[in-house]
């Protein structure tokens, strides 16, 4: 390459998105890019001309290794959807003015569905207007819901963290005996796609029975049937553990997490209280069955736990970043890098590029036949699909007992 | 030793309590114990004659290593306080009948305050009645609130997990920018003692600013002052992260987590909803300031995360288990093993035994001068005290991408 590269991160952060950033940087430099800029807070920050020169941040190989082990989005992220081209041409002109000023040759955007929409629109605009920049998308989302790619970087590390944590919670749940039993509800991210919730099944093995039930958002949640199964399980064992997606809904379309929220409830200070799916179900079961219940939200940690990341995931994220630069350098635009699985065992996976028009704004859900007939657990096919993605570790660089991250003070978060 | 040993686990489980169990087993065997029994669910299970022969569970050195890496209480735990001796002598006679039948020479109980109360009562009763069994306590609690010991096994691993997770959450919190800022409230265990909440300060280092504020339960929580600081911080930075103990209370004695609960609020199905300290504060701040807020409960994971345990902690837990057996074998009874720190740097720590009468039912809190004057952060002395306890890792034994635990099917959890 002869010009410069600019890279941005967009959407929800993950434990692997910075490894893709490291891959973009390394490959761009290897291919001769003069400068590699990082837009701060994605396209939204770029519009305000907020960016950094990445070579001031990644100064040596150790920095690059630390970046791979740093969770969240190093450059900051955004949830910003570009308007349709005809709605606001001025905005597009402004973006290209900035790109021209920075002598950008390749624009790499690491993100999910909405981010691929950005790539699509910018590459379309460039073609129409005759701009020479190349626009390539780099997949990233813990939700694993992007079309046309076997899986997405970020998912494997989140799945490994979920499998590990669910197993530890199950172990904990058998310690104390309660007269009427204990039901633990674990709430897992993924509002529409159940890939992460299904990963709770990874806890199951020779040394762990795994969760008793798993409820994905793809299927209607039947509260009556659920309660019947809870009662049956409690008759057999002292502790029942259930993994539920935050997005499970009743037949009438209401989210379970909405059931506990009434508009007229305010607390002592006049504020409305909100509750989660797990909290709602735990309270409901306690009331109906009279057993002890616990609600556990894996929350932000499932997307930020670099200390428990998957080696396969971190390396693939890096590889995908490099492949994005390579594609742009070879003249591709309006494409996303996809992961193409060749075999499960031994696991083999390569990269390709595919037309971003076929990916943006689409959503890949767990197939119905990867969930059992009753809708209460994922099948072996599901586990066979996920298992290779959680293999291996990336040892954290421990400094004084805590994992070290890459960080330069002052570039993010100040008013 | 010539007779048998029996060991039990009591109170809240931890990531290190099974390492103490491994230490008890190994030392008992090394000192010639014929059998080492494990009571299931502590003294409560023993009263129902529920116990196992540990040699059927720990069959080789690999089993012992896995046990050190297995979270929660391998034997099951209980929260059972023995009655005063004069209230129910029959109960005590029943216990000693069982101990005599099993030819027990040493009774080791791994637990916290209430468990030490059990050791105290049983050893008192044995002396009064002329029974020959020796009773020794082995400290365990993530809360670190036992008297006379420098710290307690289980605390170091929980502190390491908290420091690591809080750091990852802080990293995550700077990714997305919100117009009026983002406030993240992290709720940490420890109803009365702030040791765990203070451990959030471990996130602070060259590569992380750490949480902005830390509120321990030892000090009165001033909601007005808290809100003033939140507003001041939001004027400076886009993301504010606060660690709070689940047990913080207002001046009038009410727990903050009680503020969001009104007796007359019931959900769509007629059940009362409960909310936590972090959830309450996050909702309150959102209402008052109009910023984005998040509530994160570290919940059960902070006591069960063996995948992120401290090597110092796991080895000390093992050592303390062995020291308990040694003390009993040498004729001590009514004692607890304590950890005695000789120096911070290099960290040196040995074991001693102390009279359990001086430990049981007492509670060690964070000293006032280890919190800053405003009551919003722990001091350097606090961090210097905790830092050595989180050093080093115990690599999980990974099988197919997930940590392996020790488990024999069928001995726990069935009806």
Question: How would you summarize what this structure contains?
Answer:
2 copies of one chain form a homodimer. The first copy, chain A, has 415 residues and is of the alpha/beta class. Chain A has helices at residues 17-30, 42-47, 61-68, 89-101, 113-129, 155-173, 195-198, 223-236, 256-259, 277-289, 301-304, 311-329, 380-386; strands spanning 4-9, 36-39, 51-53, 104-111, 134-139, 182-188, 213-215, 239-245, 292-297, 335-344, 347-355, 398-399, 402-403.
Give an account of the 3D structure.
Chain A has 415 residues and is of the alpha/beta class. Chain A has two domains: 4-141 and 149-155 and 308-362, Rossmann fold (3-Layer(aba) Sandwich); 158-304, 3-Layer(aba) Sandwich (Rossmann fold). In chain A, 34% of the residues lie in helices and 18% in strands. The first copy, chain A, has 13 helices and 13 strands. Chain A has helices at 17-30, 42-47, 61-68, 89-101, 113-129, 155-173, 195-198, 223-236, 256-259, 277-289, 301-304, 311-329, 380-386, and strands at 4-9, 36-39, 51-53, 104-111, 134-139, 182-188, 213-215, 239-245, 292-297, 335-344, 347-355, 398-399, 402-403. In chain A, strands 3-2-1-4-5-10-11 form a seven-stranded mixed beta sheet, sandwiched between helices. In chain A, strand 12 and strand 13 (402-403) form a beta hairpin. In chain A, helix 1 (17-30) runs antiparallel to helix 3 and helix 1 (17-30) packs across helix 12 (311-329). The model of chain A has no long low-confidence stretch (mean pLDDT 95).
């Amino acid at each position: 390459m002869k010009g410069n590269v600019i890279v941005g991160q967009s959407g929800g952060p993950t434990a692997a998105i910075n490894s893709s950033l490291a891959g973009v940087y390394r490959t761009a430099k290897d291919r001769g890019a003069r400068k590699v800029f990082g837009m701060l807070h994605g396209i939204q920050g770029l519009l305000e001309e907020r960016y950094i020169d990445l070579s001031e941040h990644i100064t040596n190989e150790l920095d690059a290794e630390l970046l791979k082990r740093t969770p969240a989005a190093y450059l900051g992220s955004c949830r910003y959807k570009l308007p349709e081209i005809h709605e606001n041409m001025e905005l597009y002109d402004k973006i290209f003015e900035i790109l021209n000023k920075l002598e950008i040759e390749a624009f790499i955007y690491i993100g999910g569905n909405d981010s691929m929409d950005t790539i699509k629109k910018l590459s379309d605009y460039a073609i129409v207007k005759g701009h020479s920049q190349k626009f390539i998308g780099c997949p990233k989302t813990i939700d694993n819901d992007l079309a046309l790619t076997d899986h997405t970087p970020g998912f494997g590390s989140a799945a490994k963290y979920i499998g590990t944590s669910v197993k530890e919670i199950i172990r904990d749940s058998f310690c104390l005996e309660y007269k009427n039993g204990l039901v633990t509800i674990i709430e897992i991210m993924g509002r529409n796609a159940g890939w992460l919730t299904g990963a709770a099944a990874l806890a199951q093995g020779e040394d762990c029975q795994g969760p008793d039930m798993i409820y994905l958002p793809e299927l209607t949640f039947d509260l009556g049937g659920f309660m019947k199964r809870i009662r049956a399980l409690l008759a057999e064992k002292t502790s029942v553990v259930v993994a539920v997606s935050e997005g499970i809904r009743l037949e009438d379309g209401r989210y379970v997490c909405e059931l506990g929220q009434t508009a007229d409830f305010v607390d002592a200070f006049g504020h409305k209280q909100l509750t989660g799916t797990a909290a709602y179900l735990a309270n409901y079961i306690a009331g109906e069955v009279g057993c002890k219940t616990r609600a556990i939200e894996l929350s932000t940690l499932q997307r930020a736990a670099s200390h428990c990341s998957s080696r396969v995931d971190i390396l693939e994220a890096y590889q995908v970043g490099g492949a994005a630069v390579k594609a742009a350098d070879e003249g591709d635009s309006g494409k996303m890098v996809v992961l193409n699985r060749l075999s499960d065992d031994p696991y083999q996976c390569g990269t390709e590029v595919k037309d971003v028009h076929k990916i943006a704004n689409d959503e890949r859900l767990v197939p119905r036949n990867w969930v059992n007939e009753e809708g209460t657990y994922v099948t072996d096919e599901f586990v066979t699909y996920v298992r290779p993605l959680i293999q291996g570790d990336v040892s954290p660089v421990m400094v004084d007992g805590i994992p070290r991250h890459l960080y330069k003070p002052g570039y993010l978060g100040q008013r």
